[in-house]
Each structure stands twice: as C-alpha cells, then as structure tokens.
Amino acid sequence: MRLPVSDADHPGFISLVTIIELYWVLTAWYDLTGTQVKEALEALLRAKQIVVDQADQVLRALLVFDASKADFADCLNRAHCLGRWVLRDHDF
Question: N or C: lower Cβ tally within 10 Å for the chain?
C-alpha cells in the first residue's frame, strides 16, 4: 500500500489537538525551547503542503505565546475563546 503524498494540490491536515500534542512532544521529549517550537509551528503554517485547522487561531496563539509567560495550550485556548470569555490569567 502506498501512502498519499501531500502537495499544494492535495495538502495534509493537522488538527488543533495535534498542534498541542506536537508542542508538548517537542518541548517535553526533545527539549526544544518554546522559541524553537514556535518557529517550527510558524513554518507549518506557511507550508503550502499542509492545512492547519483554525490556522488563524494558531497564529494568534503564537503571537500571545511569544509575548507572555503562558503555556502554549493556554494561549491557544485564549485565541479560541477570544471574544467569548474573559480570562484573568496574569501570565497573559
């Protein structure tokens, strides 16, 4: 069986849950810094061969993450809930 190849005409798909898990694996298991993972996620967002679920929220979360001490998952949750919830986390 041959696996499908992702390209600009047939992009692969990465869900929000996968993005959060990817961040966790790269920081917890591979000891990458938050900055290194942020750069990797930004590269995924730019790739024409990949569609990231709710990419605008992932980008917004990366911007907040870069400017705060908050965990990336918290930043993504904030980006997802923006306008619907008031968060009182002082790390934001």
Answer: N
The domain of 49 spans 12-81
Q: How many domains does the chain have?
A: 1
Answering whether pTM is above 0.90, one says no
Digit-by-digit pLDDT tens for the chain (92 residues) are: 666 677 778 889 999 999 999 999 999 999 999 999 999 999 999 999 999 999 999 999 999 998 888 889 889 988 877 655 455 555 54
Residue 70 lies in a domain: yes
Nearby residues of 26 by Cβ (< 8 Å), 6 or more positions away: 32, 36, 37, 40
Assigned domain for 20 exists: yes
Does any domain span residue 59? yes
Between the alpha carbon of residue 64 and those of residues 1, 7, 74, the distances in Å are: 42, 30, 10
